Every structure is written in structure tokens, then in C-alpha cells.
Records
---
Amino acid sequence: MKTAAILAAAFAGLSLGGCIQVRAPDKPIEINLNVKVQQEVVVRLQRDAQDLIQNNPELFPQ
């Protein structure tokens, strides 16, 4: 029974050999990484401004 299963699997593998093709694409693969980093910059500037105000309260009276 095991032999028949192994032969069936081998035959199925051989019959699919011509159907699967692996080729390199004609054009280069393009990965578009348009990521907005605006939020990170704004947060950094906000933190820097808060640190500046806290460390120098005489410069920014309330």
C-alpha cells in the first residue's frame, strides 16, 4: 500500500514538472516606498520645544 502511494506521488510530481515555470521578470521589480515621515518630525519638534520651554522658563513667560 505504501509503495502504491509513493509511486502515485512520484507520478504526480513528474506530470506537473512541465507546468511550473520560474522565470525572471522582463522589467526590474519596483518597490514603491512613499512613506510619510511628517508625523515623526512634528512629534520630535514638539518634544524639542517642550524640553526647551521646561529647561528655560525665563525665555517663555506665561
---
Amino acid sequence: MKNIIVLGAGMVGSSMAIDMAKIHKVTLADLSLSVLNQIKQNHPVITVKQLNVTDKSSLQDLIKKFDLVICAVPGFLGFQTLKWIIEAEMNVIDISFFPENSLELDALAKEKNITAIVDCGVAPGMDNIILGYYNEKMKISHFECLVGGLPKVKKWPFCYKAPFSPIDVIEEYTRPARYVENSVEVVREPLTDCDYVEFEKVGTLESFNSDGLRSIIHTMPHIPNMKEKTLRYPGHVEYVRVLKESGFFSEENIEINGTDVSPLHFTSKILFNEWKLGETEEELTVMRVTLKGENDKGQTEEIVYNLHDEYCKETNTSSMARTTGYTATAAANLFLEGLFSEKGVFPPELVGKHEVCYNYFLNYLKDRNIHYVKNSRLL
């Protein structure tokens, strides 16, 4: 049994704390006492601690008491928090979706002799792990990931619910999307290149450009074609683009009756209730990872992994929290069991390249009824 601290008590962070507490001693830290107390009431085995992660000395003093840090803070806090964790010489598993390049901290992590596994959710996360594994097995020419979290009940107009802060969701709609086409990195506007895609059990979904490739642009430069797109119910993109084009996502303050107001923060407040996922509201996660390339027999092969996961009634855990959080707790336990001990910053593709790690992730998730179903065919 190890002593673990989880930073961030949101839907994903709390789910990770609960999962880790099955076999480890866990402390859950967050700024909100009310959130912490509610989790403590339902899960008394978890220790809770109020913490402001923007206070560097308080953060570093606290985490040094533990064997491993799992970081699930909001994206806008992620890079700085990760840097401070590494500076404190603490090993860390991170799922914060921050815009900065985590590999910029690799030299620091090596200097401090620690392991930081980053972007370790569902996507980025499991798609990277799958890519990393097959990159060792075949010469890949095409990689595509389609992924989205969706409510089971569609509510007009957005037909969407978020298991995390709306401001982090809006980041997907505003951050330029980077792709690789014919070995050239290209940048496209998010919410563009919309396509309709069919999924079993769900029907027709809408895919659009989003900035999900992240680290693999740098770690897999030999793959000539790579893209990631987000999935929503048809119609969602049009409504979001109306908000975006009308200035509702602008970070530049405007004056209203003598008061400076941020359109982005105003919109996030409005959408918080519209997009807020109820504690027992059923939702699902859909993902399709497609790889094409030359296998070890010189044949052109297509490999497809499909994920369809739904809200767990038994544990009252959202699908997005399960698929995201349990990938990170798999990485945490994999590290604690000594199956991965390299020093530096490692996005998931550099962990999944090792067959023992790849199998560990899939089996860990399978034990929690999260199944990645593989199909392949020769082209």
C-alpha cells in the first residue's frame, strides 16, 4: 500500500481517488471544502485536504509527504502545477489538458530524476497508448482518433453535457487544431471540416477539428498523416459557432454600465448550468481509433479500436470520469508496480510502446468493464 495524493476533486479527480483508495492510502486535495466534505461523507476512507495549487510553497510542502502525485487540476492551471510538482522531485501522473507542450519539462524531470506520465486520459491518453504500441509493430501511414462524451438524453439546443468546467470545453472550440498531412504540420480552425460518422448503438454523430494530437506531433514525426476530431450530436457545432463568431468566447473585456466583463467568463457562467452533468445523469463515451500501414508481412493493414462506454449505475460514476480517470489510475498503479520507471516526461505513446504496459492498460480497464474492441482487415 502506497500513500497517494490526488490534486483536484472534480468529477474525474474524485473518481480517481475512489479507484486508487481500493488498494492505497489516498488523500484528495482541492480548494473547495464543500466538495471535499461531500466526497469524504460518501467515502470516509479517503482523507481530504484543502489546498490552493496556485500557492507554490503550500503545494510543494504538502505533496512531499506522499509516494505519488496524481494531478487533475483544470487545464489553465495544469502546466504550472506540473512544473512545481516536478521541481519538488515528485513522481506524477497528470491528466490536465493544458495548451502548453509538456515535453518542455522533460529536461527538468530528468534533472530531478523523476517520472512524469502526462496526458493520461481517454483522448489524449488511450489513443496514444494504442498508437505507441502499434508503432513498434508496423509502419504506420495514417492515424485518426474520433472521440466524444455525450449525454444519453439530448436537450436542445446544444445536446451536450460536460463532466468538467465549460471553460475547458470552450478551449476545444477556440484552440487552433494541429494536424499532420503528407508529413507537414497544418493548422486549421476548430469546429471546421465537419463530417457525419455512424456509430453502433448511437447512430449519426458529427465530427469536427480539435487540437487533440498534442505530443504525438513531436514524438511520432515519421507518421505522415495524423488527425484527431471531436464528436458531438448533429447540430451542436452550428450553435457553438454562432456563439464563437458573435464574440461570446472572447477573452477581451467589454464595458457594461461601467463594469468590465469578460465575454468568455460570462458565457462559461451561462453554460455551466446548461452543460452541467447531473450526479446520476446517464451519459456515454464514444471513441474510434484507426491505424493504417504496412504490417510485418509487408501487407497494408487497417486496425480499428472502438470504445462505447456508458454511465455506471453500480458505482454512480460518469463514463467520461471512468474512461479518463481509470486510464490515469492504471498508469499510477503500473508505475507503482515498477513496470515503468524511466525518468523524464512521458506522454502515453512512449509508455504504451512497451507491450507489458499496453497490456496492463487494457486489462486494468477491462477489469472495470471498459472495453476497447479491436477489428482489423487487409486493404
---
Amino acid sequence: MKRLIYRILFLLVVFFMTAYGSVLAEDAPTLYNSYDGVVIGARAIGMGEAFVGLADNADVVYWNPAGLIQLPVNMFSIGFNVQTITKEDINEVFSQDPLKGGKLIYLSFAGNQGGLTWRPLSSFKQNTYIEDTSTNTQTWEEKEIRINEFLLSIGVPYTENMNVGFNLNYLSGSLAVSSKSKTGGVWNEPSANVSSGQGFGLDFGMLYKMTPFMNLGIMCQNLAAYMYWDDYARDKLPLNLRIGTSLRLSNLLTFAYDFERRFYQNREDLEMYHLGMEHLFFKSVAIRYGIYGTDWNDPKQVTYTVGMGYFKDNYFVDIAMRKYFVNLAPDEVVPVYSDEIIYTYLCTLTIPF
């Protein structure tokens, strides 16, 4: 049975890669983070996004599909970005957000054998004005990127102490670019292009129980993932590798640690370190704390998180808050962080079905 599943997955990936393998000369005008989306799950976020080695709730499809085996019942989960509060210009804050502060983050159906998830990766609109005084030219450009991802997931018990999981990903998107320019006070002919695209990918996850109290998790997102646009060359999605551990000191206290590295095509790779804890009270209330960042010695590169959850009879309500500074110039060699602190509040609801 296991061999049959692996062969089917392999054949599907080969088919997708060959059936949509045409390559055009011009690169798609997407952004470096157009395929990142946002992190899902208020519980994981409250724990500093350290969840790969834990992976025991309805959000495992995103964090580690090998954790599907741990789910006691079928679950439906929905996540929201409730509010963003800051004294900073909100347009500057959202200028690097692929969802532009969109409220709905994901929908997921998951059980102990499989799952189905939808999440938006990009819902982005950008206006750019460029003035060239040497040629007396003014150019206005508008770019709109919309990309959605659908994940079909499966979890398989590989050995007594190890589970593996896979996500088959389908992406659907549209990319619109329009521009107009004025030279010497005279308007040039405007241009516009609307391109649709679709993509396919594969994720792999592993969860290994080292002791009854300690797990090791590995998650490879976009292990083989490409987006094919009608009028542009294909985009290779950034590989995201996560390795994490979780330690339950008792039924009331859990610690988790993740190391994350994103491999981008046209910019420097991103490394992040995540640490979180969860403390249970009254067997139905959880308090969570977390920290993550690229350099914990620089306060502007560190994000602090707190969260709270209530659960009963497989019904869950989780909330989380992030406290951070946003990098307003991610494409520059030297980052430029906001002067004001940003607070983001998120909520996840989970019900059995």
C-alpha cells in the first residue's frame, strides 16, 4: 500500500512538470514573496510559529501533514486576520504584505487520513510612479497579483514511531500590469497585459517520536513547485525548509523550537529561529508565548507573540497577537525597519464534523 501511494505521488508530479513545462523568455513581474502567503493558525502563531514538531491540530496541513495521523476526529478550521494596529502609515506596513491586510487567511478540512485546504497566497495591488528628469519622462504603472493555493493532503504511518505526509498543491492566479507614460508633456500610448496562470507543487513532512515526550519534525514546502503564466516564463516557488522539535514536560507544559530557511530565486535566502511554549490551565484553557526572528540580538528583527486558547469536546477557539517592526525595504541590502511597533491580532475557529 505504501509503495503504491508513493508511486502515484511520483507519477503525478512528473505529469505536472512535463505537461506544463513550456518556458518563455520574459520573467513574470511577480514579487519575491508573491507565493509565500501568510502563516496560518493562531495556536502556532502564539507559540512563536514553532509548530513543525508538534503538529497536532487542524492546521497540520500547512505545518506538517505527517501530523494528520494524530487528529482524533475530522475537523474544520478557519483563520482570520482580525486587526492591525500601529502609528505607522498603514499603507507602508501593507506594502510588503502579499495579502494587503486581507481578513480571511485560510479554510481547512482535515482528518487523520487526509485533508483539503484553501488559502490565498497573494491579493496584492501596487501603484508605482517613476520620474526621469534627464528625459523629462513620467511613468505610472499599476500591478495586480492574485494567487490562490489548494492543498490535497495525506498522512501515512510509516513505522511505529514515524509518520510521513504529503501535500499535492494546485495554484491558480491572475497577473495584470498596466502602464502609461508622458514624455515632454505628451502622452504615449498606454499598455496593459492580463495573464492567467496555474501551478503545481509537492510538500513533504515527517514526524518522528524520539521519546514519549519529545518529537522531531521536518517540513519541506514547495519541494517541487512551479507556476506557469500564459505570457511569461514559469516561476519556481521558493523552497521553505523547517526542522523542529517539541518537548512535553507534563500534560500541562509544552516547549517547541523550529529552524526555518527559505530559498528564494532572486534574493538572499532567509533564515529564522522560532521558540515557543504552551501552558494549560483548568484542562481547557491554554496560554502561549513565543519569539522568532532572523537575529535575536537586534530588537527590530525580533517578533514577540502571545496567545490564548479555549477548547472543549474538540471545539477550539484560539487568538494570537504579534508585536514586531516591519522591514519597509526588503529588496535592499541594508533593511529599513519601521519606527513604530506593529500589533497584529489573529483568530482561528475549529469545529469537529
